[in-house]
Structures are given as C-alpha cells and as structure tokens.
Write a structure and sequence with these properties.
The chain is of the alpha/beta class. Helix 6 packs across helix 11. It folds into two domains: 173 residues, NAD(P)-binding Rossmann-like Domain (Rossmann fold), CATH 3.40.50.720; 125 residues, Orthogonal Bundle (N-(1-d-carboxylethyl)-l-norvaline Dehydrogenase, domain 2), CATH 1.10.1040.10. It is built from eleven helices and twelve strands. An eight-stranded mixed sheet has the order 5-2-1-6-7-8-11-12, with helices on both faces. A four-stranded mixed sheet has the order 4-3-10-9.
Amino acid sequence: MKDPILLIGTGALATLFAARLSEAGHAVSMLGAWQKGIDELNQHGARIQGADGVIKSFPVFATHNPQAVSGVKLALVLVKAWQTERAAQQLQIALASDGLALTLQNGLGNQETLQTALGVGRVAVGVTTTGATLLAPGLARFGGEGLISLEQNPASVKLAAFFRSAQFNAQVVEDAEALIWGKLIVNAAINPLTALLEIPNGALLTHPDTRKVMSALAEEAAEVARAEGVRLPFDDPTAAAEAVAQKTALNDSSMLQDLRRGAPTEIDAISGAVALRGEKRGTSTPYTKACWAMVRAAAYNRGNHPGGSCA
C-alpha cells in the first residue's frame, strides 16, 4: 500500500480524487459532515462514471469524526470556501504535528484560515482545473482532465509525484498568489454564468453573447488582480477562461451543482471577493457585481438563504 492520504470533503471533486488515489494504491480516508455521502462511500466506495457511462468503484474509509483519522501526515482540503473554518477545526485534531494540509479550493481566504488554525508551515497551496459532477452521494462523473499546480515549497516535488502516481497532471510553480488569482479569474468567468444559465461549462462557448459576458467577467477579475499587484500566470484572461471551459466542456460547475441541490454557493468567495477587492482598489466590476447579486438571489429563491447582501 502506498502513502495514505486524508481528503477533507465528500463532494464531487473529493469523490473523484478519492477514487483516482485509491485506484493508484493509496490508502484513502475522507472526512466530512454529509452523513448520506459518508454512508454511501463506506458501503459502495468512491465511484466514478467515465465518458463511456461505466461506473467503477474504489475502496475508501469515510467518517465525520476527526479523531478516527488522527495522525494523518497528508490532508487534501476540497471543501467549499464557506466550509473552510470547519475543515480547519477538524484538521487541528486529525493532522499530525508534522503533517501537511494542501488546499486546492476555490476563492480567496482559504489559505489564511487554515494557516491561522494549523500554522504557516503546515499549509500548502495549489489549484486545479480538473472537473467533476456529483451524480449521487459517493458517485461523481469525470468532467475533464485539468492541471494541478502547486506552490514551490519543501514538499512540492513530493506532492507533485504523489498526484502523478494517480495519473493527475501536476506541476510546481513559484508564485502561489498568481496561482490563486489565476484560478479565481477562471472561476469568476465560468461559474456564475453556468449557474445562472443552468448549462455545462462548454455551452458557454457556443453563443457569442455568453462568450462576451464570460470575457467581460474574466477581464474585470484580471484588472482587479493587476491592481492588487499580482503577476498573473497568463497573458490573456479571456483565452484562459475559454481554454478551461473547453477542457471541462461536459462538466457542471460546482456553483451550478450547489444551486441545483439548494446548498450554499461559493459566490461570495469568488465574485464577491473580486468585487470587494475592486472597490478597495477603485477598479470597476459591473459584470461581476451583477453576477454576484443574481447568484445570491437565485440561491435565495431555491431555499438557500445566505444572509446579508452584496451591496
């Protein structure tokens, strides 16, 4: 058996990663709060539906109790941004004193929340453009092969090799802030539109109007990043967003999946973060603010009451 790993989360991406890592021979544990997902994962394993419709299952251990997985040396944080505080509290119990937590989450602020709870040296940062759609508890559909980019740190080379052992595309880069903002720009361009229009990522590329709005969202977020002094990992924000939409064409964004099941979305950590940083820097973000407001309203109308306002 290869190196064990703990995944924080039981959603689409966590299920996909759990299946791929288990298939590669790693001992996979999953820590979450969704009891139905935990039960299904323990009973049937982490299941993945391929493009051919065939479902494959791989053994994992899932629990809601961090003490049941205590002493873990490597944890992968894949929960939504609004769940990071809870994940940090769980990791205070589960993560070994010399362990490392790697966040591949969307939005801003996750790294800081984890570092506050665990310490700077026990948190690593990365992003991924890999896509997955949750079809049922413990069952995910692969949404397109993406890239895992990891910040340069003492453990990054080993982490990259770890993911490559499970056939993920992984690379190490020097600028973590560029990583986070690059992913944020892509998410801000794709996720709100797919959620509001209820379409998969690739459908954004099929009409000139959706491409225009997606481009405007990407450019607004990129302008805010530049105002923050961030050196972006790409020269053309629109091309970057369109490339991810193409690579994950069949995937339903996590924000669309959240809206459909009446769960809280990451709109505040994505569009909200861009808009608020823009206000602070004097950068206009009208498309972003509109999407922020509309996704919050859509969530409210579906029974998810996020509270507050985006004004």
